[in-house]
Amino acid sequence: MASHVPLLALGSAVSWGSGDYVGGLASRRGSVHRVTVASQLIGLVLLSALAVAMREALVWRTGFLWAIGAGLAGGAALLALWRSLAIAPMGIGAPVAAVVSGALPVIAGIVVEGAPSVVTMAGFALALGGIWLVSRTRDVRGREGFALALLAGSGFGLYYVLIDRAVLSGIFWPLVAGRVASFSVVSILAAVAGELRPPGGRSAGLALLSGVFDVGGNVLFVLAAAAGRLDVASVLASLYPAMTVALARVALKERLARHQALGAAAILVAIPLIV
Q1: Separation of alpha carbons 235 and 151, rounded Å
Q2: Are 96 and 133 a contacting pair, CB within 8 Å?
Q3: Which range marks the domain in which residue 45 is found?
Q4: What are phi and psi of 124, to 5 degrees?
Q5: 204 Cβ partners below 8 Å, 6+ apart?
Q6: CA dihedral for 186, 188, 193, 197, sign (positive or negative)
Q7: What is the pLDDT of residue 115?
Q8: Against a cut of 0.90, is the pTM above it?
Q9: Distance CA 23, CA 219 (A)
């Protein structure tokens, strides 16, 4: 394994985690629908430019259908996650969504391949305990944020399962196909909500920045996986919620109740054990 693979994977974690923080912050200052649409649009433009720059052949394959399905699930999941980060502590929403999204592909693998390792089972136990702790809140918005994080994690888990099939047909163009689908679904949801307009004020810049971070995370992860072991890249990249939590703690002075902080820490430890 090349020595730069861990750096690329950790770079993807930093980029993804920063993107979620910025997207959540933008959603607190404006409409989550407008922010998500703008973020997906800039991501679509950047991924298309990368596909052209890398001279990847654009040939229709069945993998594109998997990519479209992944994009539909991922777009809806991102909208749910950023809504969660906007109304509830980021220290709860980001880890919960991450551990659920990481667990679902593993569960799918268990159904096909049998029981997982002891380490994975320990990760599941930690994750379940952590989720129980962070869910203990009397605040209505906190409960809504927790529920949205669970929904987001389920959508991202489905995204990972489907995109794994899609990239067998290429790298960048399947990602573009997925982004077209995600942009479409968040645009439709924004139109239904009467929010299909560009974000205004500072939320506009934050929305575009979140899109750049998202693409950066995707590219760094693909490079890490291509240059080394996929399992190593996946474990290191899965630490992205730590970046979101750290930024919220430092920049927003976000504090959690003691039992919720313990639960969030348990979830962060569980993520690399599961994936």
Answers
A1: 22
A2: no
A3: 5-274
A4: -60, -45
A5: 30, 38, 198
A6: positive
A7: 74
A8: no
A9: 19
pLDDT score at 177: 92
Hey, what are 178's tokens? 């997925």
3-class DSSP assignment, residue 234: helix
**178 within 8 A of 71, measured Cβ to Cβ:** yes
Q: What is the DSSP letter of 168?
A: G
What pLDDT is stored for residue 260 in this prediction? 86
Q: Which helix (H) or strand (E) holds 1?
A: none
CA atoms of 119 and 200, how far apart (whole Å) = 47
**Residue indicated by tokens 């649009």:** 41
Q: Specify the amino acid at residue 57.
A: A
What does the alpha-carbon distance between residue 14 and residue 248 come to, in Å, rounded to a whole number? 14
Instruction: Give the C-alpha separation, 91 to 255, whole Å.
Output: 8
CA distance 178 to 162: 10
pLDDT of 69 reads 95
pLDDT recorded at residue 150: 94
Query: What's at 182, amino acid-wise?
Result: S
Backbone angles phi, psi at 38, to 5 degrees: -65, -40
CA distance 64 to 121: 33
Mean pLDDT of residues grouped by 10 in the chain (275 residues)?
77 94 94 96 95 83 87 95 94 89 78 78 86 79 90 90 77 90 97 94 92 91 74 75 90 87 88 80
Q: How many domains does the chain have?
A: 1
